[in-house]
Every structure is written in C-alpha cells, then in structure tokens.
Amino acid sequence: MFGYIRVYENELKVREYRLYKSVYCGLCKTMKKQLGYASSLNLSYDFVFLALLRSYVLGEGFKIKPGRCFLHPFRKRPIAEGNSSLDYSAGASAILIYNKLLDDLQDNGFLRRGIVRLSLPFYRSYIKRAKRKQPGFGFEVLSEKVKKYLDKLTRLEKEDSKSAEQNAEIFGELLGEIFSHGLDSSETAEQCRLLGFHLGRWIYLIDLMDDFDKDKRQGAYNPLISAGYTSIPTDLLTASLYRENELAENCLAGLPVTYEDIGAILKNILELGLSNTCAKIQKTQKQTTDKAERNSQSDGTGSV
Amino acid sequence: MERDPYDILGVSRYATEDEIKKAYRELVKKYHPDNFPDDNMKKLAEEKMKEINEAYEYVTRGATNAYAGGGSSYSASQFIEIRRLINEQNYSEADIKLEAINASDRGAEWNFLKGCLMAQKGWFLDANKYFETACRLDPANAEYRQAYDAMRNTAEAYTRGYRQGRTSGRGFCDDFCTAFICTDCCLHCCCDGSGGC
User: Fold this and answer.
1) Residue A3 forms part of a structural domain
2) How far is residue A195's CA from residue A270's CA, in Å, rounded to a whole number?
3) N or C: which end of chain A has fewer CB within 10 A?
4) A274 at interface of B, judged by CB pairs closer than 8 A
C-alpha cells in the first residue's frame, strides 16, 4: 500500500531532484527526532509527497543544509531542515501505519500477527510522542478519523465486498482527511482533500493490481478475485487509474502557486510518476505471465 | 397516459429502435428544464420531460418486450422515475431509489440503470459488471448494448492514453543498456564521419 507515489526522475531538473532528495532525508531526520529513532524505518515516498504538498500549500519553503546521517556517515548530503510540513507528515505517517497495523492484527496468519503485536508498542509510543510534541496539529482528531475509515474498510473486506471501487472510495476519503486536516483556508483545504481523495483511490486500485497474483496464490482477500476475475481486468482497471490520476492533476492545478520548484516536483509526480509506476507494475506482471506461459509450453513440447 | 406515446415522441408505430432513440434524444435536448431560465417555463418543461420519458419507456418496452423476470411485482413507473432523475443529473437520489428496489426485482433494466450511474462516476469495473448483466438478461435490447459499448470505448480511450505511457519517448536512455548502445552508435557516427579510428 505504500511507496507508489514517486517522481519520474528523468524529467526533473537537477535542482528539483536535489530538493526532492533533501526533503526525503529531511523527513527521515524529522521522524527520528519527533517520533523515535526506529520510526524512520517506515519512511516512504508517499509521505514525502504529503510534506511537499503541505509546504506548497502553506507557502513554506525548505531550508537545505548539508549533513550526515547514520546510513551515510562519511559524505555530507543536502538535508531539508525541519518545518511544520515535515512535522505534520511524520506524525500522519505514524498514525496511518499504527491504525493499519491494528487492522492487520485481525486478519492475518499467526506469524504475521505475532510480528505486528511486537511492533505495536513502538508505534503507540511514536504517536504519543507526536501528540505531545505537536499539540497544535490535532493528531487525536486525525487518529480518530483514520481509525473510522480503516474500520469501515476492514468491515467491507470481512464481508467479502466484491466492489473494488467501493473499497477504493473509502481509502480515498481517508487520504483526503489526512491531506486536508488542519488547513485553515476552506478552499485550499477542499482542493487538498479532493487531491487526496483521488490519489487514495488511485493507490488502493494500483495496490490491488500489484497484489493480484500474490493474493491469488495465498488465497488472500482481493475484491477483484471476489468479483470473479481470474486474471487482472487490465483495461478497466487502467481506465479507472487514469481517470483518478487526471482528476488529481486538476486539483493540483487549482492550487495557488507558491514555490515553483516544489510545484514542479508535485506536477512531475502526478503527471509522470504515477503512470510510470503503473507501467512498471504492468511490465513485471506481463513478464511473469509470459514466463509462466513459456514454461508451460516448453513442458508440453519437451523442446527448449 | 392520455396521448398516444408514439405521437408524443413523433415517431411512427413501426419506427426502429434507433429512430425512437434519436427522436427521444432530440426531445430531451429541446425540453431539458435547464434550457429554460424562466420558472414557469421550467415547470412546463419538466412536465413535458416527464411525459416524454414515460412515452419513451412505454415505446421501448413495447419494442423489445423482453423485461427480465417479467411478471414480477415491481412497476415500471419506478424506473421511469429513476430515468428522470438520471436525466436531471440527480445521481445520488437515483442511486437511493435503485438500491431500494428488492433484490428479486433487479432485472435487466435495473442493472442497466445501475451501470449508467457507475459509468457516470467513473467506476469502470462496476459499470462493466452491471452492463454485462443487463446485456445478458436482455440480449436484444439495443439501448443496453449501446451503453455498454460506449462505456467500453471510454475506458479504452483512457487505457490507451495511460498504457502508451506518458513517459515513453522521453526516457529513451532509461536503462544502462540502451544508454550504452546510444553512446556506441554516436561514437560510430562521429568516428566514421571524421574518417579516424
């Protein structure tokens, strides 16, 4: 479910790419500082997007300074200094992951449940710390909302819901809440909520596509399988994905321009990054199916 | 209905389904309440639209006469009402009305209307499912088939745009191998040109 929202590096300017990398490092640093050292294990590009969007909307730039970190102790790298967007993004990621794990606890194998149970106290402490350090963000309220939507989603999954779109709708609403939470201006907040909504729907659907083969093998829940598809309905799914992608782009275009570089990165992610992710996933899937076909063929003929 | 539905639509009794549909579309375009800013006119247009919708319902039903689950207890007037709501773009209300219909009464038309709502929302997966069911239950109905095809076409147009990849053609040197071949070609060109190497 995480890590689908990335830039398409080839089309970024060098200074934009440097900014993107430095915000990534900045988010990692912020997570360590605000939540706890191990929390940076959950660092994902999705929340870099959130941090960039926040700062774009708030008109809050990034100050970049060279610095070292645990993984790169020798060479200094550009790192964005903490600001409120990074703080918010770090807190939101902890809240989303914690609640997701709580839901995972209900429907997974014994081993996985055990691992989740062991890691939960860490997350609980991250959230506690986030709430204490940033009382202004209203993380309690956000946590409640996230929980509400995830519960709804879990209920649908338990009922073996056959509509991928219905489930995606709920995940969209959830991401919309995260994107718009705590923004003052109602118009901007609404735009951000919509952007989050479409992006959330996109993420849910691409996740289904990505996990289809795995879910099929393991007999796990996947609404596409429940709806009776034996292979991925690529055409229909791609159509839905493209539509959400376009709508998200429109939302971004509706936001007032503040920092051009940040805007360019966001635009790159939505215009090129998402479709690139989609194309990559489809390519791997095609390769696996081709390979399987080849294998079955060679088994049949005995040649090759 | 007091007037003859064929008269209302302005078609002959022997008109084909396509002709009926064309006439219906033109009337809808002409009398759509949104075309009339004046309140009185709007009310009149609404009445007219209702009449047209009922007539259309009646005529198409006669033409195909293949309601799935014929003889069940629901009345066609419910669907007329829902069609009106969809025409007025009141989708949420239409959906509530559709969901209120008993599961046992959900025939071809129910699936068709549900499919229309889903297609309008851009839920292609669900729209596909409902249209498919509608066409299966009533294979002779041209309206359902047409809506199904239209939805597939839209979906395909979207897919084509995405699959060709907005990034293809931009990142020619995407992986190392291509980059290597590129450089190789360039070198050859240069060297051959200069006559060296």
Assistant:
1) no
2) 10
3) C
4) no
Within a domain: residue A134? yes
Domain containing A139 equals 9-283
Q: Which pair of structure tokens corresponds to residue A217? A: 């093998």
Nearest to A239 among B159, B165, B170 (CB): B159
ipTM: 0.80
CATH number of the domain within which A224 lies: 1.10.600.10
The shortest CB-CB distance from B122 to any of A224, A237, A240 is to: A240
A57: in domain = yes
A273 CB contacts (<8 Å, ≥6 apart)? A5, A6, A7, A8
User: Helix or strand or coil: residue A74?
Assistant: coil
Give tens-digit pLDDT for A57-108.
999 989 999 988 878 888 899 999 989 999 999 999 999 999 888 887 776 6
Domain assignment of residue A194, yes or no:
yes
pLDDT reported for residue A93: 92
Q: Cβ contacts (< 8 Å) between A239 and chain B: which residues?
A: 124, 154-156, 158-159, 162
Inform me whether the pLDDT recorded for A251 exceeds 50.
Answer: yes
From the list A236, A242, A272, the residue facing B125 with the nearest CB is A236
Domains contained in chain A, number: 1
